[in-house]
Write a structure and sequence with these properties.
It contains 5 helices and 5 strands; from the N terminus they run βββαβαβααα. It has 167 residues and is of the alpha/beta class.
C-alpha cells in the first residue's frame, strides 16, 4: 500500500510517498515539492499544480492521499490561496479515484510525536527517525508532507484495529 502525503500551498506544495513493507512498516519511496513560484498568475499556478499532481499519480501510484486541513491564522489572503490549491488537489484525487484523508496540523503532530503542540523541529526529527533517514528531509514542505503521510498510516492502522474488534 502506498500513501501520498501532501502539504498544500499555492506556490510550494510538499509531497511525500510512503509504502508499507511486508512487516507493515512505512518506507520512504519519494519526496519533494511542486514549485510553481516561477508561474505568475494564480490560475496558471493551479493548472501547474494539477498537471504535476497528475504526473505524480501516474509515477507514484498511491492508494491513498493524506492532506493537511486548512486553518486560518492571521493572513486570510494566504489562507484563501491555499484553499484554492487544496481544491485542485482534491479534484485531482477525485478524478483519479484516490481516497483522501484530511488531518489538522495538531493531529499530525500528535500522531508523529505524541504531542499535539510539538515544535516543527520535533516533528522533523521524528519523521527522520520513523523513516530511517540519515538527515531531516528538506525542504520543510516535504518534511510536513511525510509527517502527514505517517499520520494517515496511523489512522489506517487504528481503523483496521477497530474493525477487527467490532467483527
Amino acid at each position: 500500500m502506498k500513501i501520498l502525503g501532501i502539504d498544500p500551498g499555492i506556490a510550494i506544495t510538499g509531497f511525500g510517498i510512503l509504502q508499507l513493507n511486508e512487516a507493515g512498516d512505512p518506507e520512504l519511496v519519494r519526496y519533494g515539492v511542486i514549485d510553481s513560484t516561477a508561474v505568475r498568475e494564480t490560475s496558471s499556478r493551479l493548472v501547474f499544480l494539477f498537471d504535476a499532481l497528475q504526473e505524480l499519480l501516474v509515477t507514484g501510484k498511491p492508494d491513498y492521499c493524506a492532506l493537511e486541513q486548512l486553518y486560518f491564522s492571521k493572513n486570510i489572503t494566504t489562507g484563501m490561496r491555499v484553499s484554492e490549491a487544496r481544491g485542485v488537489i482534491e479534484l485531482c484525487m477525485a478524478k483519479n479515484n484516490v481516497p483522501v484523508g484530511e488531518y489538522t496540523p495538531n493531529e499530525v503532530k500528535q500522531s508523529v510525536t505524541s504531542y499535539g503542540n510539538a515544535a516543527k523541529k520535533q516533528v522533523q526529527e521524528m519523521v527522520k527517525v520513523m523513516l530511517a533517514m540519515e538527515s531531516i528531509p528538506k525542504p520543510d514542505d516535504a518534511a510536513d508532507a511525510l509527517a502527514i503521510a505517517l499520520c494517515h498510516i496511523s489512522h489506517l492502522r487504528y481503523e483496521r484495529k477497530i474493525s477487527e474488534v467490532e467483527a
